[in-house]
Design a protein that fits this description.
Layout (H helix, E strand, L loop, with lengths): L18 H10 L6 H11 L4 E4 L6 H15 L11 E4 L3 H14 L7 E4 L6 H9 L3 E4 L1 H9 L10 E4 L2 H6 L3 H9 L6 E6 L4 H10 L4 E4 L3 H7 E7 L5 H11 L5 E4 L3 H13 L4 E4 L5 H13 L4 E4 L14 E4 L6 H8 L9 E7 L4 H11 L4 E3 L18 H5 L38 H5 L29
Parallel strand pairs: 1-6, 1-7, 2-4, 2-5, 3-4, 5-6, 8-13, 8-14, 9-11, 9-12, 10-11, 12-13
Helix pairs in contact: 2-3, 3-4, 14-15
């Protein structure tokens, strides 16, 4: 049995985790648990089902991985081929990789085996690890079902099931896959359910999965208000790029994530930043797994400081030291705003969230303030368009490129000069080196051979002659 939940929990040692895990946390410099960790870990150690509702960046991964590793270290057994004891489901490949890296870090002083499986790459290494046997498996739904159908994974001996980022799972359309996976789980198990938001569909899924769960909730405003400065610029759509370039040049940016609404918009914006001599990389679902991993590694190591991303692609980005989050396009839902700005202000650090709000999007800004229970500072856009760089290039927005409209023609104004007569009639100059064309009645009625040009009358299609009637007997 684990320790009871008390308000005096001030360090990880108070949570009675195994010594091997405490040693790893000490090596990483982690002393004090976050609120979601302090409240969740004791209940998980006690074996309860749990609903954890907290935004990204609050330490949810450690909240479930630390007690799970402690459980595996306490009840040591040999790993059985193709039969994991723990399954952690993640909505994206990037997030699955991040969870696997965290588990590797926290369990460095333990003897256990784990694997991370996801689509977009060859399954050979993954199936090889499964055949050898793993204690803990991190997976995305699609690849998990695929390998289950091939007979490489059996969940009949599963002891702990974790569903991470449940709200995003449903947003990405994984509900049918989740139902298929849940049907194969044994009845005797511990289930942990983590989500940043809790809409009705997510609550219904949790009720079908959990038994008498403990609910742990960390309000979104506790993190956003204290650690993240939130500002918004009221800016027309066709001026957002100019404003972004000025902010990136004038502000003290360490590293930043810029959010766009579409994949094409991310590519266009990254290209414009390159033209403005600002190194940036776009990351979204249309890029290959190898390309996405290369971009993420470059962002982690500091090779790239600016990342342009869509909402879904950014779910797996768990990088410390992000100083700014810029909402180049306003999020479609207020909950997405919480996910976005959670990329900065992590682990007690401070961050800045900047939102570009178009004139017709003020209502969305009010919805965000209502959800986060905070007030976003509105800044007046008084910048001057930058000279040179990307501003001399094509400044059309993504929508204008998708649906170009012809520009209005300028009204013709008659001016006195060499190309106009006193009567106001416009005279056209011929091209240099060519003879002047003088229209006359004779020239207009005759060709260069002196013969009148006549049009042959159209006689129409000739009628077909009727076939002769057949004679009888032939």
């Amino acid at each position: 049995m684990g320790p009871p939940l008390t308000e005096s929990t001030k360090s990880f040692s108070d949570l009675k985790l195994r010594k091997a895990i405490l040693k790893s946390l000490e090596q990483e410099g982690y002393d004090v648990p976050t609120p979601i960790q302090a409240e969740s870990i004791p209940h998980i150690i006690n074996g309860h089902d749990l609903i954890g509702c907290a935004q990204t960046g609050t330490g949810k991964t450690a909240a479930f991985s630390l007690p799970i590793l402690s459980f595996l270290d306490e009840d040591r057994r040999s790993a059985k081929p193709n039969c994991p004891r723990v399954l952690i489901l993640s909505p994206t490949r990037e997030l699955a990789i991040q969870i696997g890296e965290s588990i590797q870090t926290y369990g460095r002083n333990m003897k256990f085996r784990h694997a991370v499986i996801y689509g977009g790459v060859s399954q050979h290494r993954q199936t090889k690890a499964l055949n050898r046997g793993v204690h803990l498996l991190v997976a995305t739904p699609g690849r998990l079902l695929d390998l289950m159908n091939q007979g490489f994974i059996h969940l009949n001996e599963l002891e702990i099931f974790v569903l991470d980022e449940a709200d995003r799972m449903l947003d990405m359309g994984f509900l049918p896959d989740l139902k298929k996976i849940i049907k194969t789980l044994p009845d005797e198990r511990q289930s942990l359910f983590f989500s940043a938001t809790m809409p009705q569909k997510v609550s219904q899924l949790a009720n079908s999965l959990l038994v008498d769960p403990i609910r742990v909730e960390v309000s979104p405003n506790s993190s956003t208000v204290e650690n993240i400065k939130q500002v918004a610029y009221m800016v027309p759509k066709n001026k957002k790029r100019d404003l972004l370039l000025q902010l990136l040049e004038d502000s003290n940016f360490g590293s930043a994530i810029i959010f766009t609404r579409t994949k094409r918009g991310a590519d266009l914006l990254a290209t414009k930043l390159h033209q403005g001599k600002i190194k940036a990389e776009a990351i979204h679902g249309n890029k290959s797994q190898a390309a996405r991993q290369r971009i993420l590694n470059g962002f982690k190591t500091g090779k790239t400081h600016i990342l342009v991303a869509t909402d879904l692609a950014a779910r797996g980005i768990d990088v410390d030291g992000i100083t700014h989050v810029i909402n180049f396009d306003m999020p479609q839902e207020a909950e997405d705003y919480v996910h976005r700005i959670g990329r900065t202000g992590r682990a007690g650090a401070t961050g800045i969230a900047v939102t570009f709000c178009e004139p017709g999007q003020k209502r969305g800004l009010r919805d965000i303030e209502r959800l986060t229970e905070s007030q976003i500072e509105i800044l007046t856009n008084t910048f001057q368009p930058l000279q040179g760089g990307a501003n001399d290039q094509d400044t059309r927005t993504e929508d204008e490129l998708r649906d170009p409209r012809p520009q209005q023609r300028r009204k013709f104004q008659r001016k006195e000069g060499p190309t106009s007569s006193p009567s106001g009639e416009r005279k056209f100059k011929g091209r240099p080196g060519r003879k002047k064309f003088n229209k006359s009645s004779s020239e207009s009625s005759e060709s260069s051979f002196g013969k009148p040009r006549t049009k042959k009358p159209f006689k129409g299609k000739p009628k077909r002659k009727p076939k002769p009637a057949r004679r009888p007997g032939k």
